[in-house]
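User: what does the whole thing look like in 3D?
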Amino acid sequence: EAGVVQSPRYKIIEKKQPVAFWCNPISGHNTLYWYLQNLGQGPELLIRYENEEAVDDSQLPKDRFSAERLKGVDSTLKIQPAELGDSAVYLCASSLGEATNTGELFFGEGSRLTVL
Amino acid sequence: SQQGEEDPQALSIQEGENATMNCSYKTSINNLQWYRQNSGRGLVHLILIRSNEREKHSGRLRVTLDTSKKSSSLLITASRAADTASYFCATETNAGKSTFGDGTTLTVKP
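Assistant: Here's the predicted 3D structure for the full assembly of 226 residues, as structure tokens:
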């Protein structure tokens, strides 16, 4: 079974440029998460989807960050314009959600963003 | 702010020794999970313990949960060099929100 797939793995951009990250969750997983992880720290939740609905986006900086999950499957996370402080690893995770209530999250390898 | 806080921040031991990591949290939880992350990789789920459980085992892993003290511990027995990684606790609330601590970096010397 394929795991959570993220792309690109690495991205280097100039500040003020836009960037987008893509995530394909595990088939059948209703819940999808985007986390931000700074070096030496734990992941911080940006947004959580239940199917196509964003149920928790309280930590998403909406002035520059946007996310969508079309048809409740794949998701994209966009930053426009990027700032130096956005350099981090962006992790996508998925879970079966309330259907099984196991709580286990399956993570992708992450997208490492460097803003110059 | 992070819900969970791991202690210690870094731990270095010899192969064969046991490693113990602690996690403290602030609010009521539905369950607590431990994850492992190798450098440059995503997180991998290790074990989940529910709020009504006190202890759980999985292979060389032993997790305890004390809801009265809002704390958990992860014990790795007979450690191996391959156990070198960062270990994170994550607490899930009844609303389904998972919050991670900043992790313990474990180094196992061969």
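In plain terms: Chain A touches chain B at residues 4, 31, 33, 35, 40-45, 48, 55-56, 91, 93, 97-98, 102-110 (CB under 8 Å). The longest strand of chain A covers residues 88-95.
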